[in-house]
């Protein structure tokens, strides 16, 4: 076997500690829990490999996975990766329309998943031509993948050598809200590089029990050889997590580290504070996927008294990019105009460039690079940065800039700047910039100031074509004069405002404001001029 296959690392971890807990997954609806040791997980994966080969699937074939996270699904995921087959994953927070579009775009050769999902195949034309297999039985038009099942041993697991550096590992379609779906091409090379980057900045201990809210992190944990306890939540709605239930689950399982998006973490923290409970066994906490608030930072310090708590900045295409310890972030809150995300990790090369200049090659990137204190678009490069989107040359041309060393500059779409200490600050999304008398206004600095006003839960500044921008408020400020002073500082005359009962958020982490949804909802809102 070769280290070029990501699964080789999982295989080595399983050989080292075959009886160690690999996965514990609790169904959020039924409450039933299922655990597997490393030996059991890899043995099941080896059996799945026999069934996949029997179905005529060969290296490079793409296989669409349609199932909720389960031990069987992760065993199947390892089986596919080990054979050089290519799992295609869809975010559970996707809209139905984007799921259908992603399935059509995926070029999958087969679909495997749960019977309860696949039995509706006839409603999705893109599934009509595909062989369809269920992990848990059969249905009309769906075959049982377990038919002909033969038990296998850990040693029978295959992690075939993949000599091609560009060999596809898995393809993930994420829940973007605009444009055609983009399938992120996670090659085996990039999976290994990402694993090494995460492990470098977030070291694990041999007895760690991790509770990640990010399903892909389970693969990282398996490569580390540590135990994973999946939070008992619906991953399509992490912001609606039952905090009390999670506290009991984490305490019972002896969880030592957590990784989650802000919305999920705040639910957990709120329940812990209400119950006056702490989690002293947790020694490492990572929050990522969106910006954070001072309240979340302070709550983490009180609920996890013995933990090293940090915030990580990254994306599907580049994880991680930068990180910062929570106490340091809290001490510098408001020192600059934007969200501080810390210094770039060692594996990432980051630059800030003028987005209005040509950015087609390395030379143009150098010419467009800005100095400390100047705001522009953030680019990132590194071995762990994904080089392409699958079968989407337009997206690649728009977001990937080739370099002479074989890597790419990835255009994050985020804007920000470096301070004099080499720390990176985010000021907003490039596409969300609002026209103002002083030029394009990035939204984060103003929104941070408004969010800090008493009475305001959350706000969003939204641009409108050929009309003044709108400030959307969840909750009204107790001092309108304070709000007007903030708006006057940012030179936004004739600003309109409106109130919503609940701010719409992204389907993936339930943490980022869904600005396209806000823009679409404007005709239903009562707009007023801020006077």
Strand content: 15-25%
CATH architecture of the largest domain: 3-Layer(aba) Sandwich
- Biggest sheet overview: 14 strands, mixed
CATH classification, class level of the largest domain? Alpha Beta
Put simply, the count of helices is 17
CATH topology of the largest domain: Rossmann fold
Please report the total strand number as a whole number.
25
Q: So what's the overall shape?
A: globular
Q: Tell me the number of structural domains.
A: 4
Q: Mean of residue pLDDT?
A: 94
Spatial extent as radius of gyration: 24 Å
Structure description:
This protein has 531 residues and is of the alpha/beta class. It has four domains: 1-184, 3-Layer(aba) Sandwich (Rossmann fold), CATH 3.40.50.980; 202-306, Rossmann fold (3-Layer(aba) Sandwich); 334-431, Luciferase, Domain 3 (Luciferase, domain 3), CATH 2.30.38; 433-529, ANL, C-terminal domain (GMP Synthetase, Chain A, domain 3), CATH 3.30.300.30. Strands 1, 2, 10, 11, 12, 13, 14, 15, 16, 17, 18, 19, 20 and 21 form a 14-stranded mixed β-sheet that branches. Helix 9 packs across helix 10. It starts with 6 loop residues before the first helix and ends with a strand. The model has no long low-confidence stretch (mean pLDDT 94).
